UniProtKB/TrEMBL annotation:
<dbReference type="GO" id="GO:0006623">
    <property type="term" value="P:protein targeting to vacuole"/>
</dbReference>
<dbReference type="Pfam" id="PF19036">
    <property type="entry name" value="Fuz_longin_1"/>
</dbReference>
<dbReference type="InterPro" id="IPR004353">
    <property type="entry name" value="Mon1"/>
</dbReference>
<dbReference type="InterPro" id="IPR043972">
    <property type="entry name" value="FUZ/MON1/HPS1_longin_1"/>
</dbReference>
<protein>
    <recommendedName>
        <fullName>FUZ/MON1/HPS1 first Longin domain-containing protein</fullName>
    </recommendedName>
</protein>
<feature type="domain" description="FUZ/MON1/HPS1 first Longin">
    <location>
        <begin position="25"/>
        <end position="57"/>
    </location>
</feature>
Length: 95
């Protein structure tokens, strides 16, 4: 059984207005790109979003770049996307 604290945002999805208001989104995926966990929403409903992000990041093999308020960071074989201007070491420490 999944704890209640994990299920409290399961009804959210990217097409709902409040989904983008959260400060931190967490996506855990397998090496094959299958979603295992997402902090907000249901990972099965977000599989196309996660697959798209993974394909874009894998194609370009970029290690760190910033685009407006979003920072994209690849550490070894793991991808981290930071929406705010945090240092790479801060992102790694949070994870």
């Amino acid at each position: 059984m999944i704890p209640h604290s994990i299920q409290k945002h399961i009804d959210q999805s990217p097409d709902k207005q409040n989904y983008n208001n959260h400060k931190h989104h967490v996506f855990i995926i397998t090496d094959a790109g299958r979603p295992v966990y997402t902090r907000y929403g249901d990972e099965t409903e977000l599989s196309s979003l996660i697959a798209t992000m993974g394909a874009i990041l894998e194609k370009y093999k970029i290690y760190f770049f910033k685009d407006g308020n979003a920072g994209f960071f690849k550490y070894l074989n793991d991808f981290y996307i930071n929406r705010y201007s945090k240092q790479k070491i801060t992102i790694k420490t949070q994870l």
